Amino acid sequence: MRNKSLIAVSGFLLAAAAQLFAHHSFAAEFDANKRVTLKGTVTKVDWRNPHIYVYLNVKDERGGVTEWACEGGPPNVLLREGWTRNSVKEGDEVTIDGAVAKDGSKRCNSRSVNLADGRKVFAGSSEDSADGAGKKQ
Amino acid sequence: MRYFVVALLGVIPSSAWAQWLNYPVKGTPRGPDGKANLTAPTPRRPDGKPDMTGVWMGVTKYMINIAADMKEDEVPFQPAAAQEYQRRRANESKDDPSARCLPLSLPLKQTITSPFKLIDIPAKEEMVMLYEGARHREIFMDGRPLPKDPEPSWYGYSIGRWDGDDLVIDSNGFNGMGWLDINGHPTSEALRVSERYRRIDFGHMSLEITIDDPKMYTKPWKVKESPRLLPDTELLEAVCENNQDLEHMVGK
């Protein structure tokens, strides 16, 4: 646990710890230059391979609701960093920063997932290329 | 704010997976604090050879580009292979077989940042490599030769031998469909891969990979990797069953 805290104190290390079993090329699907910050309510966490997905409903100014699907790391990488399928639950309010899908669909690749109380969860994206897996050790 | 985050992290419950992740593996040298001593001496088999057994993890940059430490013009591409590689780069590797949940090539199985477990079975003159998301490999140490006219396969055929303290594994019989890395360095059925592992200490290996594929490259070329031991962990299942990426991979 102490080591996880050490990772958390540094934004740089946090990004580095984000692993990427790169099941696929990030750039084939997502646009690194097209960022989005989504604030919404989690409707589902799909904790499956090759990538987990957090689904969330995002309200716009006019009261409309859009469902987004944001991709995260593979479950095993996240498990080794201490996260589980219960770290984020349906109904949680989250803020996700990510890169948007190139094909215009409401999908993002998560750079960070923050819970309403400030906790940062699921550090893991297929975008980063630093070696970070297993940093907990 | 940073400390605030740290304080909150402190209350997150530990993983319920403690018996598979974070279970103290027997035979692991430890410091006074109980943590694995990754720089302890190389463990040895009763016959004095290094015991290579352990859960090992590759380095990300070689998974993405196996030639990460080389200049692009140092990779001895055949002309058609250079063209194919450029084509794959130009569309951001959207045709990567692993993005379709197809098997990984050798050496990508070794360089991907999903661990492999090496188990040495001297009494059977065999080593086994297990993976989280892929079929195992058997490495026969009994002196048999590689097959002369192998049925092409994703995983190939592997034999091993000792060269001093180095474990040398030679493999052939690939189907040419695997990419050497996510970037897309190509292979053909003529591919032969040699892996030379040296366990430097308890927690570290050096791995020299030789790519010999005369249809794709004008001469054999080598890359150096440095797998590290993941202590007190075991492999976890990773079945590629919810692949939602494919239909969204547009490339450039």
In brief:
Chain A is α+β, with helices and mostly antiparallel strands and 137 residues long.
Furnish the topology, listing elements before pairings.
The complex is a heterodimer of chains A (137) and B (252).
Chain A: H1 2-9, H2 11-17, H3 26-29, E1 30-46, E2 53-59, E3 65-71, H4 75-80, E4 93-101, E5 107-115, E6 120-121
Parallel strand pairs in A: 3-5
Antiparallel strand pairs in A: 1-2, 1-4, 2-3, 4-5, 5-6
Chain B: H1 2-9, E1 54-57, H2 60-64, H3 79-90, H4 108-111, E2 116-121, E3 126-131, E4 137-140, E5 157-163, E6 166-172, E7 192-201, E8 204-212, E9 221-225, E10 228-229
Parallel strand pairs in B: 4-5
Antiparallel strand pairs in B: 1-2, 1-10, 2-3, 3-4, 5-6, 6-7, 7-8, 8-9
Distance between the termini of chain B: 39 Å
Largest interface: A-B, 49 and 54 residues
Question: Which strand order does the major sheet of chain B show?
Answer: 9-8-7-6-5-4-3-2-1-10
What's the tally of helices of chain B? 4
Query: Main sheet of chain B?
Result: 10 strands, mixed
Quantity of strands of chain A, as a count: 6
User: Which structural category do the helix and sheet elements of chain B fall into?
Assistant: alpha+beta
Tell me about the largest β-sheet of chain A: 5 strands, mixed, barrel
Lateral arrangement of strands in the main beta sheet of chain A: 1-2-3-5-4
Number of strands of chain B: 10
Could you state the oligomeric state of the chains shown? heterodimer
Low-confidence stretches of chain B: 1-15
Strand content of chain B: 15-25%
Report the C-alpha radius of gyration of chain A, rounded. Answer: 14 Å
Percent of residues in beta strands of chain A = 35-45%
Helix-strand topology string of chain B: HEHHHEEEEEEEEE
Q: Which of globular, elongated, flat, extended, rod-shaped describes the shape of chain B? A: globular
Question: How far from one another are the termini of chain A?
Answer: 10 Å
Shape of chain A: globular
Mean pLDDT of chain A: 77
